[in-house]
Write a structure and sequence with these properties.
This protein is mainly beta and 188 residues long. The protein has a single domain (16-175), classed as Electron Transport, Fmn-binding Protein, Chain A (Pnp Oxidase, Chain A, Roll). The chain is 11% helix and 38% strand. The chain has three helices and 14 strands. The strands form four sheets. The chain has a seven-stranded antiparallel sheet with strand order 3-2-6-9-10-5-4. Strands 1-13-14 form a three-stranded antiparallel sheet, with no helix packed on it. A two-stranded antiparallel sheet has the order 7-8. Strand 7 (102-103) and strand 8 (112-113) form a beta hairpin. Bound molecules: flavin mononucleotide. Flavin mononucleotide binds next to strand 3, strand 5 and helix 1.
Amino acid sequence: MSKKIINNPFRPVFPTPVGLITSIDVDGKPNIITLGEVAMVSLNPTRVSVGMRPATYSNGLVKKSGEFVVNFPTTDIVDKVDFCGTVSGRTTDKFKETGLTPEPAIYVKPPLIKECPVNLECKVIGILSLGSHDLFIGDVLVMHAEEDIIIDEDRGIIDPAKAKGLIFAMNSYWSFGEKIDVIRFTRK
Ligand SMILES: Cc1cc2nc3c(=O)[nH]c(=O)nc-3n(C[C@H](O)[C@H](O)[C@H](O)COP(=O)(O)O)c2cc1C
């Protein structure tokens, strides 16, 4: 099998989880943006990154407030997820239009999305302008997880299959695949 050189790879790191990021404006009105650029960047302390283009409404809201929530949707609400990724909060109330339910967070002003089984409350600790996207680094203040997907509460471990996460790859939505093996690496 021979390989070809591809000089302009399209989003070559895949898959990634789909996240619904909630933010809030100065009047307290919440917005939702769908993102494929969601990643872990530190396990201890727990820190995540989200990549948002400067043109999005959410980018400015998060820059201003310094806070966001990462909500992980299930495959059941893919239509609502897609809607939040195709219209802007500048002109559309996405909570109203999708029927998704905002719930108060504990430490930050942007709301959790009730229909998402996992939510991460984040404070922005850094922003990098990298090109097409700005990378927001979020310190995870607390995670909310639905009871029936929790495996080990003390260690903060949830069952990825039960979370029914929506996966993003090559401009399509996918579901979580089958478990192949367990890792043998242990943290030192
Ligand atoms: C599956 C999916 C993934 C997306 N990923 C990103 C992303 O990682 N970064 C980004 O800036 N926009 C991404 N978008 C586009 C935004 O969600 C879209 O521009 C949205 O309408 C912006 O909303 P806002 O203006 O209310 O912030 C994605 C859209 C979809 C449907």
